[in-house]
What we know:
By secondary structure, the chain is mainly alpha-helical. The chain is built from 6 helices and no strands. The longest helix is centred in the middle third of the chain and has 39 residues, at 119-157.
Amino acid sequence: MKLTDKDRYTSSKPYTYSALCFAILYALYCFVISPLYIFLVNDIAFSEAVLPWIVELVGNVCELAAISVAYAVIAFCFYKFETIRSAPHILIFISATLLKYLINTAVTWITYGCIPINWAWDIVDVMFYTVLELIPFVIVLIAVKGIMNKHRRSVINSDDANDSTSRRIYDKRDPLLRSCMVCAIITFIVKVAGLLINDVWGILFYGFPEGFVNMLLMLLSYAINAIFGVVCYFVMYAALLNMSDKFQENDLI
Length: 253
């Protein structure tokens, strides 16, 4: 299929959309939430209070919202355009993730007022966490691509196949909403797996949490991560609705 100038302009719109969302959400995370959290945990008046925990939670939600928008744009691009035309968004996500950790590290140094002697290890941490965050992104790419390929085959092979997108909360016939559900499940599994590894590591070195309150807080953290999966779904759902309203010029095939 030969691309017209209009096609190229239309396919570039979602990338601009995702880049803008990354810029807003990651700027909020790096320049507001992260310094505020560092200030609170280092202030004896707030370090043992609930406020740092709330700020950290807001930061996690902010990060998750940005990642969920990325998943939504990938699903939308795989649905609307050829795979090769989705490549720019993949590069945008990788760049945004790397920049997020680099800027957050620099802001942390500024907040503490010095560059640590072992600053090289901070850069190693940046690279490590960037790669770690890209692993679920690759899993999402594979899963969403599989959903869209299956949908394309059903559209081509069946005269009465449903190729319309739904505005309902969930419709298993809609490949975009199926993608939302798969991404939400992947997000939940990744979050819980990370939390489980952290808890097992803590138990091995420090023992089981003592007291009912500490055990309750541990269980609460798992419940919150389950909620993160729900947040991922509805952020993706809202982003897809928004993009479907804005970018309708190209068809599936």
